[in-house]
């Protein structure tokens, strides 16, 4: 399965009442594919505010996304939770919608052992036929999916990739030791270029909502051997990579989209919109 180099973790558009704005889903997808050159989209991930979406909302969003992309890019659905049984049940429902893969976050809050993590991901993978992408984000889950555990999981046939937000040392070890063909994506925008340098496939990104074309150019430069140009573009983009996480995501990227005329609404509690001062800072990133 080729998910490409730049995968956008898509925001969920809301209306003024913070209900899903179904009319904005197709325009947003078209914008991300056509203008920002996303190779794949993650629907109902962290950036899509999955924790505050109902299962019914998620299923409809995923079904519409598969329909609206019309094969122009891959659709990866976030189906993970901290309950293995629910993750299996929901992943099986989502698989029937025709997605290209599912993204399974490491169980949060319960903080399982490495063996517990292995058994969780193994059970989910064995319950579906579709491609499974692991998602390691210690800053949100409270647990790190260690490199050794990821390597073990890479030998399960339909576990094909990982999105890992850990440090470059961990990414390096996974790339070096995982099963042949297993893909490693950085989950940290500012690490996109360093991750390529140690052999990662690409980035699962938030910033690509607004600088996706530039990120594709950076990666193209690097892969063509134009390392200096890639590094220069990385340095130029770095303030955006870091600035959009100055306050809890996805409020900043939704504000950045609005500055570009792409209306995706606010965020659901317990998240809040950016303040006026924060909004001015985000605007300054694009001047």
From TrEMBL:
<feature type="binding site">
    <location>
        <position position="204"/>
    </location>
    <ligand>
        <name>pyruvate</name>
    </ligand>
</feature>
<keyword id="KW-0963">Cytoplasm</keyword>
<dbReference type="Pfam" id="PF00701">
    <property type="entry name" value="DHDPS"/>
</dbReference>
<feature type="site" description="Part of a proton relay during catalysis">
    <location>
        <position position="46"/>
    </location>
</feature>
<dbReference type="InterPro" id="IPR013785">
    <property type="entry name" value="Aldolase_TIM"/>
</dbReference>
<dbReference type="InterPro" id="IPR020624">
    <property type="entry name" value="Schiff_base-form_aldolases_CS"/>
</dbReference>
<comment type="pathway">
    <text>Amino-acid biosynthesis; L-lysine biosynthesis via DAP pathway; (S)-tetrahydrodipicolinate from L-aspartate: step 3/4.</text>
</comment>
<feature type="active site" description="Proton donor/acceptor">
    <location>
        <position position="135"/>
    </location>
</feature>
<feature type="site" description="Part of a proton relay during catalysis">
    <location>
        <position position="109"/>
    </location>
</feature>
<keyword id="KW-0456">Lyase</keyword>
<feature type="binding site">
    <location>
        <position position="47"/>
    </location>
    <ligand>
        <name>pyruvate</name>
    </ligand>
</feature>
<dbReference type="InterPro" id="IPR002220">
    <property type="entry name" value="DapA-like"/>
</dbReference>
<comment type="similarity">
    <text>Belongs to the DapA family.</text>
</comment>
<comment type="function">
    <text>Catalyzes the condensation of (S)-aspartate-beta-semialdehyde [(S)-ASA] and pyruvate to 4-hydroxy-tetrahydrodipicolinate (HTPA).</text>
</comment>
<dbReference type="InterPro" id="IPR005263">
    <property type="entry name" value="DapA"/>
</dbReference>
<comment type="subunit">
    <text>Homotetramer; dimer of dimers.</text>
</comment>
<keyword id="KW-0704">Schiff base</keyword>
<protein>
    <recommendedName>
        <fullName>4-hydroxy-tetrahydrodipicolinate synthase</fullName>
        <ecNumber>4.3.3.7</ecNumber>
    </recommendedName>
</protein>
<feature type="active site" description="Schiff-base intermediate with substrate">
    <location>
        <position position="163"/>
    </location>
</feature>
<keyword id="KW-0028">Amino-acid biosynthesis</keyword>
<dbReference type="GO" id="GO:0008840">
    <property type="term" value="F:4-hydroxy-tetrahydrodipicolinate synthase activity"/>
</dbReference>
<keyword id="KW-0220">Diaminopimelate biosynthesis</keyword>
<keyword id="KW-0457">Lysine biosynthesis</keyword>
